[in-house]
Amino acid sequence: MVAPRFDPPGLAKKDSTAKMEALFNSHLGPGHTALLLLCVLIALGFEFVNGFHDTANAVATVIYTNALRPTTAVVLSGVCNFLGVFLGGIAVAMGIMKLLPVELLVEQGAGAGLAMVFALLLSAILWNLATWYKGIPSSSSHTLIGAIIGVGLGNSLRPGHTFGVGVNWDKARDVGAALLFSPIFGFLAAAGLLLLMKRYTRLKGLLIAPPKDTAPPPGTRALLIGTCSAVSFAHGSNDGQKGVGLMMLILMGLLPAQFALNIHADRATIARSASAAQALEATVTAHADASARAEADRAVVQLRAVRTLLHDRASTQAVPPGERFHVRQAILLADKSVDRLVKSGGLGLTPSEAVALRRERSELRAMTDYAPRWVLVAIALALGVGTMVGWKRIVVTVGEKIGSSHLTYAQGASAELVAASTIGLSALAGLPVSTTHVLSSGVAGTMVANGSTLQRSTVRNILLAWGLTLPATITLSAVLFLLFRLVLA
């Protein structure tokens, strides 16, 4: 296989490179610095709203089964959310960031970055607050993803751009599929689990409405508290990571030289990335079939570019500020080409070779897939504190307005077990799913399985919010981006 000549993206275009170099080698002025701080505060505000908007779903079952008092439940949920952000990895955060190719905005300067940040933050927060005020369990995941896509589409409407370019549609399809099918799975799985419990449990007390103001038996109470904790932890590991991705998108869009790469990466980390690029190049060269030759050639070129850019670097700080975003681009483009080869079946790897390739891809992205500890702390605190505030509206909807009968112990446990496992597995896979939709659909599934009728008005409102969230936030975010772009040009 003969690889064509490599022209790094952005580097081949002198005008684009000049803009990026000017941005990387300059500092934000006092006004933009103040705006950056405002953006960070708004991002934390989004996660705070996410806390009381989404996590209320997790505590509804323990409150309505009298397993915990409301204050105790929300404090426990807040702590578990905090831990979930720290221990849940950053795969979801990286997935959120890949929805929008940041370089399209970075090339245009700090004004575009600020417009991007304000548009997606304000549109997401406004929609979340509107649905919270109405007591509708809407999805913060849908909201944030719609806002990001809206920014990309808004940017593509500007003169000299092609409509639709600026959104990673491959990643958007993966995310969309996860958001679409996870509530359907939650409904069916929770209903099935409840039916199994009704058929095989000997503890018939699990299947009746809990007596008013009476705590459940110790074993049942422990189960319900455990499932509430699991859902809250899973929420932190999934939705909390969306906040991490949002924060990194802000920092990378406005301060690319400082955040495009892990500034603390040492020689060993850089060497592992370079070695992974070499191993991936060898795998692609050896295994690519004729039908995938063009993509394989592209991957080889990009992997060699990564090796060249990382050659003999003692640390990230040894990479000139003006080159750091180019290094990030080269790594992510190389990984994307390898991913396309894998998905198309053009490599024909054995199971053991596929495992090795996934490991090498992870090593390749060691410098780009990261989040500073202070970002994790800030997001975890915002989410945890938000959980303890404003939860009541959504709790009432989940506990009283989805079905026509009171939640039983078995229904609460079934819905939360399914929600925790679905959200947790999705976090491991790097797919953002909606805690709100998985859990509320699980509650609806248990109501149907228990022979209870669903309250049509509530179900209609939830479905309307589910259907309108993406188009509403995409439109709002696109409009706000174009307006802010005019002001901040």
Structure description:
The protein is mainly α and about 500 residues long. Helix content is about 75%, strand content about 0%. It has 20 helices and no strands. α4 packs across α10, α9 runs parallel beside α19 and α10 crosses α16. The longest helix is centred in the middle third of the chain and has 37 residues. The protein is globular and about 70 Å long. It starts with 13 loop residues before the first helix and ends with a helix.
Count of runs of 4 or more consecutive helical residues: 20
Classification by helices and strands:
mainly alpha
Question: In angstroms, what is the radius of gyration?
Answer: 24 Å
Record field, number of beta strands: 0
Question: Roughly what fraction of the amino acids lie in strands?
Answer: under 5%
Secondary-structure map:
Blueprint: H1 14-24, H2 30-54, H3 56-64, H4 70-87, H5 91-97, H6 103-106, H7 110-133, H8 140-156, H9 169-200, H10 218-254, H11 256-259, H12 267-287, H13 293-310, H14 321-344, H15 351-364, H16 373-387, H17 392-401, H18 409-429, H19 435-449, H20 456-488
Helix pairs in contact: 2-7, 2-10, 2-16, 3-4, 3-10, 3-17, 4-10, 4-16, 5-10, 7-8, 7-10, 7-20, 8-20, 9-18, 9-19, 10-16, 10-18, 12-13, 12-15, 13-14, 18-19
List keywords for this structure.
single chain, 489 residues, mainly alpha, 20 helices, globular
